[in-house]
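Hi there. Long-time user, first ticket. I'm pasting a complex I've been working with (about 431 residues overall). I'd like to know whether the download I got is complete or cut off, because the file seemed smaller than I expected. Thanks.
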Amino acid sequence: MSISVVILAAGQGTRMKSDTPKVLHKVSGKEMLFHTIDAAREMSDDVTVVLYHQAEKIQAKIEENYDGLNFVYQDAVNYPGTGGAMMGVSCRHDKVLILNGDMPLITRESLDKLTSAGADINMSVIWLRDSSGYGRVIIEDMSVVGIVEEKDCTPEQKLIKSVNAGIYLVRRDLLERYIPLLENNNAQKEYYLTDIVSMAVEDGKEVHPISVPEEEFKGVNSKLDLAHAEVIMQRRIKEQLMRDGVIMHLPDTIYIDCRATFEGECEIESGVAIHGYAQIINSHIKSNSVVEDSVIHDSDIGPMARIRPQSKLTNTHIGNFVEVKKSTLKGVKAGHLSYLGDSTIGEGSNIGAGVITCNYDGKAKHQTFIGKNVFVGSDTQLVAPVRIPDDVMIAAGSTVTKDAEQGDLVLSRTPQKSIKGFFYRFFGKSE
Ligand code: UD1
Ligand code: MG
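Hi, the file is complete. Here it is re-exported in full:
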């Protein structure tokens, strides 16, 4: 079936108490609105986003990430409300799915349910013990006969437990007919999209209530809602990964970005955070490590290590308190307390405890190149740019400022000297 999708995202989101537009707040690493856009694009080649508050900012952010979407700016001053939002929209396909930009948890399964039922209008309905805050859906003989917004409800209508979840599938010709007829004679003086339901019913059209899970259709309106949505999204991501074969220890303590991918047998210990487009392949990430936008292949990381963006680690061992940034390590061991940034390190090289690539000179970043089978002694500083070829030994405690040659021993230390009996001269001798 060909459908068009309209995403309503013009609302202000005052309760979010943030300068960031509400729909650009992230859930599991991805903007709420982008969760909805991704779902929409899977279903349709005709997706329209309706904007008003901070419209330019939101549109620019969308266009950084997506091509080919349509944008409509609502005239929210003269035509406020969800009906007003639909006024400038025109769609190419005969059926139109209307979504909200602040519902990142809706699943494909629920959208399929809504788009596959055959009626003139399908609307999402939740049955709630406490229906306050929502529009009440009046259902007779399995059909919807009207929607009443909370502020317009009579005391009896307030008791209705079936509420409008806010997502609809509507025939395009009905939208084209009814949207221009909307009026704002209601408590909020808004143009309600929901009024098209009673218009359709009066015309003898069929409006089906489609029951959907409350968890998915809770809009995010505050930072508290955002945190709740995060918990649900994280649970889903991790359950799916474990079903796909990832081992997780105490999964409630693990954070995984929705864009991260896993292949082969991976093991993730407690307290790990994986951010961005990380790719983890046949690897073991130990407790309390952080991996950001990096590729980890046949490697073990941590505990308590940090792998920062654009790192590529293959067949590598990274131990505790090691920070790696924008570096390519292949067949490397870096077991303890190091900083490896803007570096390339080859097969069989060993990085001793406390090694630091001094990649920043106060103005610019510089590269460190370390070849194969290099032994970098503990507490070495490599002052970049610097190049160490294959088969080099660097003595512990060296400050390396010059390139070496293959086969060298490099050392730069003050020669050790001993002063005989100094201890006793200073402290005296005990009896
Ligand atoms: C709406 C429904 C209500 C339903 C509820 C479910 C109407 C009249 N009421 O309530 O029956 O129970 O959703 O959450 O539709 N938006 C615009 N322009 C506007 C106003 C809103 O684009 O002028 C967008 C918002 O960004 C949001 C969506 O529409 O994505 C819903 O807006 P919201 O204010 O949350 O819905 P309500 O009017 O409270
Ligand atoms: Mg409203």
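A couple of notes from our side: The chain has two domains: 3-217, 223-410. The chain is about 20% helix and 30% strand.
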